[in-house]
Amino acid sequence: MTLEAPRRIVVLGPPGSGKTTPARRLGARHGLPMFHLDHVYWRPGWVAAAPAAFAAEIARLAALPAWVIDGNALGTIASRLAAADTLIPLDAPA
């Protein structure tokens, strides 16, 4: 049996759990683009994206053929999980 390399990876965990480091490493290892939800949510000048625009952008990213997406944004988790082939849950350090 041959296992296929992951193509759509969600890295999920609370603030401080270290999501970005493994997300970057996974992206580099598998040649996948990496998207950090904070970069999608926060616009220049630390202005939050409108909820509809944020959800639309997450749906657009989730529809791409390959990616690693890290971040919480539980209000938009459904589109990411529906498209993902791999979920990596992290917990905050003790």
Key terms:
6 strands, 94 residues, 4-stranded parallel β-sheet, two-stranded antiparallel ribbon, Rossmann fold, alpha/beta
Taken together, the total number of domains comes to 1
Shape: globular
Global structural class = alpha/beta
Spatial ordering of strands, largest sheet: 2-5-1-6
Q: Report the end-to-end length measured between terminal Cα atoms.
A: 38 Å
Known CATH architecture: 3-Layer(aba) Sandwich
Main beta-sheet annotation: 4 strands, parallel
Gyration radius over CA: 13 Å
Name the quaternary structure.
single chain
Residue-averaged pLDDT: 92
- The portion of residues forming beta strands comes to 15-25%
Low-confidence stretches: none
- CATH topology title: Rossmann fold
Q: Would you list the SSEs in sequence order as H and E?
A: EHEHEEHEHE
The level-1 CATH class: Alpha Beta
Overall description:
This protein is an alpha/beta fold and 94 residues long. It has one domain: Rossmann fold (3-Layer(aba) Sandwich). Helices cover 37% and strands 21% of the residues. It has four helices and six strands; from the N terminus they run βαβαββαβαβ. It has helices at 20-30, 37-41, 51-62, 77-83; strands at 8-12, 34-36, 42-43, 47-48, 67-70, 86-89. The strands form two sheets. It has a four-stranded parallel β-sheet, with helices on both faces. Strands 3-4 form a two-stranded antiparallel sheet. α3 runs parallel beside α4 (77-83). The protein is globular, with a radius of gyration of 13 Å.
